[in-house]
Amino acid sequence: MKNRVYVGKLGKAVGLKGHLRLFIDSDFPEQFKKGAIFSTNKKLTLKVEEYIPSRELIKFENYDDLETSKKLTNQELYVSQEDSKNNCNLEKNEYFWFDIIDCKIIEDEKVLGYVKDIHRYPLDDYLEVVTETKLVDELKLPKTFLIPYKRDTYILSVDIDKKIIETKDCYAILENS
């Protein structure tokens, strides 16, 4: 499955009917519903038969007993970006990480770099930005820097279609990194 998004990991088998412990690593637990399709890091395709959020248990079709479900232990679950967009509801000014990555960071019509990754820390998410080559070569600025993802404080606008994030006060962060 191309353009996959990591959403969780399967733990040990629980009970005799094929349930597994589910460790969700996604902001959208609603995508683990009956009939949802996931792929694994071992190239398996799994269809959800039952999900019990209160007990963090999941069961997949054709894994109906302890022995067969044990084979899935420690496998990672992935979903396609398209399925993520269809199954997850975003609020206003919320975006999928995979849409934010590769966006250009622009401040006062000057390109500072592009988003390489996003890091989640306890208080805020941070955009890891690869600095524009020209700024690194000519001004000897750092090759990468972090921008706190705070709307209105540092992030003025996000245009996913154009892959542009307009910022303010981020050049100062870059200079002081």
From TrEMBL:
Please report the stretch or stretches of sequence annotated as the Ribosome maturation factor RimM PRC barrel domain: 97-167
Q: Which Pfam family is one of this chain's hits? A: RimM
The main place the protein resides is cytoplasm
GO cellular component assignments: cytoplasm; ribosome
Which residues, by range, are in coiled-coil regions?
none
Q: Which GO terms describe its biological process?
A: ribosomal small subunit biogenesis; rRNA processing
In the UniProt record, does the keyword Membrane occur? no
Q: Which residue intervals define the domain RimM N-terminal in the entry?
A: 7-82
Task: Cite the entry's keywords alphabetically.
Answer: Chaperone, Cytoplasm, Ribosome biogenesis, rRNA processing
GO MF terms, alphabetically ordered: ribosome binding
What InterPro entries has UniProt attached to this entry?
Answer: PRC_barrel-like_sf, PRC_RimM, RimM, RimM_N, RimM_N_sf, Transl_B-barrel_sf
What domain of life is recorded for the organism?
Bacteria
Q: Where in the cell is it found?
A: Cytoplasm
Keyword Transit peptide found? no
Q: What is known of its domains?
A: The PRC barrel domain binds ribosomal protein uS19.
**Could you say which protein family the record assigns here?**
Belongs to the RimM family.
NCBIfam families listed in its UniProt record: 16S_RimM (TIGR02273)
Q: What role is this protein assigned?
A: An accessory protein needed during the final step in the assembly of 30S ribosomal subunit, possibly for assembly of the head region. Essential for efficient processing of 16S rRNA. May be needed both before and after RbfA during the maturation of 16S rRNA. It has affinity for free ribosomal 30S subunits but not for 70S ribosomes.
Q: How does it assemble?
A: Binds ribosomal protein uS19.
Q: Which HAMAP family match?
A: Ribosome_mat_RimM
- Name of the featured protein: Ribosome maturation factor RimM
Supply the gene name.
rimM
